[in-house]
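Course assignment 3, question 2. Fill in each field.
Student: A.L.
Task: Predict the tertiary structure for the chain below.
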Amino acid sequence: MLDDKDVVKFQAYILYGKNVDNILRRIVNYLGNCNKIIADIELSDILKGICVESELPHFMEFRDYKMVEEVINNEVIGKGIVFRVTSPRSDIHAIAFIPINSFNKSVILKR
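Answer field:
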């Protein structure tokens, strides 16, 4: 789980809800396919339950935002990064969704 304070440098969305499954389903519907998701390994069991086996997301461990930047830099536009962030309430889950788009790629190139 990453802190949510560094997510603000990207065009990103933090989705809140009592059910992580529902949050991830909304992201899958937005992207149109599970294989367009690069997700933190912590979410793998939930996403494997949502996605059909032929369209599983790519899983990796996001230990810091440097890894997020590397994925944005290396992946094609149209995919999205998904990981847990700290939530302001203990009974609510928070999931960060960072689309891989030209804006987020330009943020990294400016650094």
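Instructor remarks: The chain has four helices and five strands. The chain has one domain: 4-109.
Grade: pending
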